[in-house]
Amino acid sequence: MTALRLTGVQFRYVNKAFWRNPASAFFTFAFPLMFLVIFTALLGHSTVRIGGRAIDTSTYYVASMACFAVISACFNNIAISISFQRERGILKRTSGTPLPAASFLGARILHAMFVAVLLVVLTVAFGHGLYHAAIPTGVTLLRVVVAVLVGSATFCALGLALSAGIPNGDAAAAVVNAVILPVEFLSGIFIPFDDTTPSWILWVARIFPVRHFVLSMQAGFIGTAFSWTDVLVVAAWGAAGLLVAIRFFSWEPRRG
Fold first, then answer.
1. How confident is the model at residue 237 (pLDDT cuts 50, 70, 90)?
2. How high does pLDDT run on average in the chain?
3. DSSP labels for the chain?
4. Domain boundaries, the chain
5. What pTM was computed for the model?
């Protein structure tokens, strides 16, 4: 119970620190919406065929930018912020306090998931208001909620795992973007996959959790087939990321 209480206290601290940096908070929420407007302005006046159905590209990008928002809030944020805190000695000082490591990291993960959920809600509301994108209801909504929670937890774990391999704080953003951006392109977030997409791209995309997360979210927003296998694959990646983080995570700044 003490560990849970400390996690809650630390969560409140992380949340206050987040909102007390208004510039960072503003762009965290504005970034996916800005991308949504840009992509729909450039490509949102046509349809794309997915699973034999014609889908309006503006609706497609609402689901895609919701995925992008979750990944940015969890994977990018955790990997970059933890790397900076490690190199500034914050993690080392924290490890010397009575605060359990699980409470410190757990609060960071819970807050990232909290922000991810807010981003999804904001993106969906924005897309519904401007582009008349459908809002999931009933069982479909429940599936979307599960997909968001599993996906956000997984990308937090993968962010922690990647932070163990980032050499220093200055390299954090470059390493994170070099890892995630190609996978996002290969997973159909920025460019829709239609019936003409080369099979080798689809095969490569299926290796990574981003594609399976995208498919789970698309099922809720554009009516494609939902598969619990996609959710389980994402969860498996999260478990693997957590194991890597436990094995290689360091509280000490890198030297040399």
1. very high
2. 89
3. -HHHHHHHHHHHHHHHHHHT-HHHHHHHHHHHHHHHHHHHHHHTTSEEEETTEEEEHHHHHHHHHHHHHHHIIIIIHHHHHHHHHHHTTHHHHHHTSSS-HHHHHHHHHHHHHHHHHHHHHHHHHHHHHHH-PPPP-HHHHHHHHHHHHHHHHHHHHHHHHHHTT---GGGHHHHHHHHHHHHHHHTTSSS---TTS-HHHHHHHTTSHHHHHHHHHHHHHT-PPP-HHHHHHHHHHHHHHHHHHHHH--SSPP--
4. 2-248
5. 0.92
C-alpha span between 65 and 35 (Å, rounded): 7
CA gap 209, 28 in Å, rounded: 22
Residues in CB range of 255: below 8 A, 6 or more apart: none
